[in-house]
Amino acid sequence: CFVFFFFFSRSSAKLVAPLGCLVSRQKHTLPDLPYDYAALEPHINAEIMQLHHSKHHATYVNNLNVVEEKYKEALAKGDVTTQVSLQPALKFNGGGHINHTIFWTNLSPNGGGEPKGELLEAIKRDFGSFANFKEKLTAVSVGVQGSGWGWLGYNKEQGRLQIAACANQDPLQGTTGLIPLLGIDVWEHAYYLQYKNVRPDYLKAIWNVINWENVSSRYATCKK
User: Fold this and answer.
1) What's the pLDDT score for residue 26?
2) What pTM was computed for the model?
3) What integer best gives the mean pLDDT of the chain?
4) Which residues, including other chains, have CB under 8 Å from residue 14's CB and lie 6 or more apart?
5) CATH code for the domain defined by 117-223
6) How far apart are CA 6 and CA 52, in angstroms?
7) Are 141 and 186 a contacting pair, CB within 8 Å?
8) Are 170 and 91 in contact (CB under 8 A)?
9) In the 3-class helix/strand/coil scheme, how is the chain assigned residue by residue?
10) Which tens digits make up the pLDDT trace of 62-79?
């Protein structure tokens, strides 16, 4: 049982399913972190991680549950106007939940370095070298105007890796069609308490905690 929404990419409108069935579903919940709040120090401090996870991500989850309940009521009434009016909130809060759920697993206290195996070969094929890839994703992430995300995604139709930026909490797959592998959150709450307004310093540091095993696993899964 699914209700579909239109999200627009640059090239075409795509039909995408929301996080769950709006007629009969369980509420979304905040996922546990796979590590302690202080585990990513000194690169991302415990205060940032606690606020980011327990406050910001939790707010997206709570708001998503509220908007889905309102959508369910509008759907039952056949109130199309309200259904349409709720879609921006669904996209924002649903995207926030999707993006952060990926982000936490993309990080690890045992991360850093370079990926191995098939993912590294694909990066070399599509970007020339790991150093070129790292430079390009950093530049795209630094260049996000205001709040948003830098992404490494997989283009299933073309069978290649691509770098993209998304504004606000726009989910990568729902807005571009790319399957998300690695996301870098460049909202101010992701770094401001530690790095102030110097986003490039945060982006330099985050490479020390990238969980390449998780990114590689995502790549292997989306190729099947």
Assistant:
1) 83
2) 0.87
3) 91
4) 6, 7, 8, 174, 177
5) 3.55.40.20
6) 29
7) yes
8) yes
9) CCCCEEEECCCCEEEECCCCCCCCCCCCCCCCCCCCCCCCCCCCCHHHHHHHHHHHHHHHHHHHHHHHHHHHHHHHHCCHHHHHHHHHHHHHHHHHHHHHHHHHHHECCCCCCCCCHHHHHHHHHHHCCHHHHHHHHHHHHHCCCCCEEEEEEEECCCCEEEEEEEECCCCHHHHHCCEEEEEEECCHHHCHHHHCCCHHHHHHHHHHHECHHHHHHHHHHHHC
10) 999 999 999 999 999 999
**Is the distance from CB of 82 to CB of 74 less than 8 angstroms?**
yes
Cite the residue boundaries of each domain of the chain with CATH code 1.10.287.990: 46-106
56 is in an annotated binding site: no
Share of residues in the chain with pLDDT > 90 (%) = 88
Q: Which fold has domain 46-106?
A: Helix Hairpins (1.10.287)
28 is in an annotated binding site: no
Residues shown for the chain: 224
Residue with tokens 């509220």: 66
Give the pLDDT of residue 12. 37
| pLDDT score of 10 more than 50 | no
Going by C-beta distance under 8 Å and a sequence separation of 6 or more, which residues neighbour residue 214? 105, 106, 108
- Residue 217: pLDDT above 80? yes
- Identify the bridge partners of residue 154 per DSSP, sorted by sequence position: 161, 179
170 is in an annotated binding site: no
Task: Flag whether 185 is marked binding.
Answer: yes
